Amino acid sequence: MTITRRNLLATGLSLPLAGALLAVPGVAAAQDAKPKPKLIVGTQDAGFPHIADASGAYKDAPYEVEWAVLPGPAAQFPALYSKSVDIGWLGDTSLILEQAKSTTPWTPDTAPLRIVAGWRNFDPQFRQLVTVVRNSADVKSLADLRGKKWAFNYGGINHLQYVLSLVKAGLQESDIEPVQLGDGFQAAAAFNAGRTEVYSGDFVRVKELVDKGEARILLNGDDLGIPGLTVYATRQDVLQDPERKKQLADFLERGRKLWAWYDANLPAVAKIYVDKVKYTPEKAEAQAGRNKSQFVPIDAKLLKEEQNIADVLFERGFIKNKVDVNAGFSGDYNVFTIGGAAAQ
Q1: In this predicted structure, what is the pLDDT of residue 32?
Q2: Residue range 249-273, pLDDT digits in tens
Q3: Distance CA 215, CA 251 (A)
Q4: How far is it, in rounded angstroms, from Cα 286 to Cα 191?
Q5: Is CATH 3.40.190.10 the right assignment for the domain spanning 129-224?
Q6: Is 31 helix (H, G, I), strand (E, B) or coil?
Q7: What predicted TM-score, i.e. pTM, was given to this entire model?
Q8: How many CB atoms lie within 10 A of CB 50?
Q9: Where in the chain are all domains bearing CATH 3.40.190.10?
Q10: 3 state SS of 302
């Protein structure tokens, strides 16, 4: 309750005594306390803000974390550029596609956005990225994908799954009927509703159809050499501001506590997806298992994998400009995410 003059008089205290009470250091400090600075973080998972709150990882942070649910990179990028969010939730290859559109080459110092942390699930039973086909489409081999309606969304790892699946099948976009939608949820909905025969994206969104035997997985991200990380990206102005850098480092370090809590509390996480996102218990359990993750280092190994992907996309004509992936990644925060040294 806020202490006011009326509150004090109502208790029967005299004004001199009330003045003495207001002079107590603890009370004065409470009145004069400045609001915490705010860190606005984008997420593509509507359940994640509730999970973060349940974990307690950010409870005593020296800043307030505000979550913005923005499904898909098409929404995350404008929010980052407009400074509506400070940290965006993307796929690890999102900045490859973004950098390829730039008319001027990116460098570590000039790139408008850089990836500072990434995480993934290493459990083989939880495939994140898949290319799935309806059994009714009579696809017996990758070559049979020719002419099929294929749902995907632009700009992130779902898009990359689509592109590299085409490459693996020896096809161009002109060989199929591409159905590009606004985000992964829309792409999955089109496939689930039978409006397309093929889908590339997040497995959980089409898992029910696969479980029913109406569809099957043709390719997963590991088959295509995709690291399959979910990442946090931020702007140069955040990385160049000493106070904002401290907030970012603290936020990422607390993220390790979040993932530790998550791993130890999968039933609680599933319940959050049921209660807050209104998933069925089966889908909630699958989502909780699929999202169980750990931070990975942004190191030479990862950068080599990302560069290989960028080179393939350029050589096959899917992006117009050659990309140096080093410009879009920073290993400076490894010490906070995994406790290791910066990428070499």
Answers
A1: 56
A2: 999 999 999 999 999 999 999 999 9
A3: 40
A4: 19
A5: yes
A6: helix
A7: 0.77
A8: 18
A9: 38-122+229-337, 129-224
A10: helix
